[in-house]
Specification:
The complex is a heterodimer. By secondary structure, chain A is mainly α. Chain A has one domain (about 5-130). Helices cover about 75% and strands about 0% of the residues of chain A. The radius of gyration of chain B is 26 Å and the shape is flat.
């Protein structure tokens, strides 16, 4: 791609990732949540691939890392749901409304679901980018 | 001829589905149920969980198992695209390389 697109990607990439993390972590107080935050984070890697190519993207984040992260996130999600079902306990205190550290275990659900969405979209994108269309 | 049949079937599907939706919207019973549960979500949801995003509380707490199924849909979707892209179920991977070619061409080349 162009020099302009490469430079803009180099500047914008960490900001987009940071915004995605913000949307995921603040999912229980502000609009947003798992799907929007994970899509934003995956979109950063899509822009990076379009600017630099799939080989350089795979040096930054390998496909095996994505697969392992997705499996771990699914396992942790099921463990969290079992924890909530059997113990009926709030992981986070529910006194302070509007603060980040509030909402009974909603933040952990948001983080795990955001990782699931992010890795799922990136698995699809890596497959599409690696496949040779003849 | 074939394209015309396909187009007419698609148009018929669109007309039937949109007719059903419009009928359900304009029928007199629509949106007239007892609004107990939505009032409960709006008034008590943020007090119970101290989370101001009501959509997140509904999606991840009151309808948690539904969202678990949605995440499993994400798994299945990624695995399906992976299998399509890398040809995990193609004839080449299963039966060897020559199985993918149609048999008539092979016999022509050999004879």
């Amino acid at each position: 791609m162009n020099v302009i697109i490469r430079t803009a990607t180099k500047v914008m990439f960490p900001i987009i990732i940071l915004f995605g993390i913000y949307v995921i972590v603040h999912g229980h107080t502000t609009p947003g949540g798992t799907f929007s935050g994970g899509s934003v984070m995956a979109g950063a890697f899509v822009i990076y691939t379009l600017a630099y190519g799939i080989e350089k993207t795979e040096k930054e984040l390998k496909q095996t890392v994505i697969d392992v992260l997705k499996s771990i996130a699914g396992f942790v999600l099921i463990m969290l749901i079992l924890f909530e079902f059997f113990l009926r306990a709030a992981l986070v205190p529910t006194e302070r409304i509007f603060s980040l550290w509030s909402g009974s275990s909603l933040m952990f659900f948001n983080v795990v679901g955001g990782i699931m969405v992010f890795t799922g979209l990136l698995m699809i994108w890596y497959t599409v980018a690696k496949t040779d269309v003849e | 001829m074939n394209e015309k049949i396909k187009l007419s079937v698609a148009m018929g599907c669109i007309v039937i589905i949109s007719g059903f939706l419009l009928f359900s919207i304009f029928s007199p019973g629509f949106n007239q149920w007892d609004k107990k549960i939505s009032n409960f979500f709006i008034n008590q949801g943020w007090r119970q969980l101290s989370a101001t995003n009501t959509v997140t509380t509904i999606v991840w707490e009151y309808r948690g198992y539904d969202t678990l199924g949605e995440e499993s849909i994400l798994f299945t979707e990624a695995i399906g695209v992976f299998a399509l892209g890398f040809g995990l179920f193609s004839a080449e991977k299963i039966q060897g390389k020559n199985a993918a070619l149609p048999p008539s061409k092979e016999s022509e080349v050999k004879s």
